[in-house]
Amino acid sequence: MIAVQTQKLGIEGAYEFTPPVYGDVRGSFSSPFQEKAFTEELGKPLFPVRDISHNRSARGVLRGIHYTATPPGRAKYVYVPHGAVRDFLVDLRVGSPTFGRVGTTELSGDTCRALYIPIGVGHAFLSLRDDSIVVYVMSEGYTPANELAVSTTDPEVDLPLPDGVTPTRSDRDAAAPTLAQARERGLLPDYSACRDAEALLWP
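Now predict its structure.
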């Protein structure tokens, strides 16, 4: 069997997993999460799962940059079983060695690539095809008051969006503060608090 390819990303604590995809005349089969690969890379199993959600997006939809107030924070394991997205991770953890850094990956049903997103790292994506589905496996349930966002159009963040695309955003995302505004308002998570919250996932 072909091994899952794993890669440590440029944002501290974030990882990419690319499993083999088996195709024939019927279609294809893949396993976007394999515990052995995850444990070998991170030295521990996947966090206890509290919530599994997904969204479906038309081409040109831009969602994010979303994160969860810490505590409690939410760690995420994300993959795309259908369609394709340009995925963005943004380190929002004040005090992190990679604070403010942006990571870009293409996730699609063709590759079944998946990402582990640590607590405090913001997530966004641009849908590249109609009916793209993004699946989220999460360490905490959804509490609306804890869900926060930073603007996807903030020049300081500078998401590498494709030329010629006019993204479709929600009213909430369009009204999100810039990175500097979120920091001034005390809305960004502290790196140490995020690490402490993650430690509680594996008692």
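The chain has one domain: 5-199.
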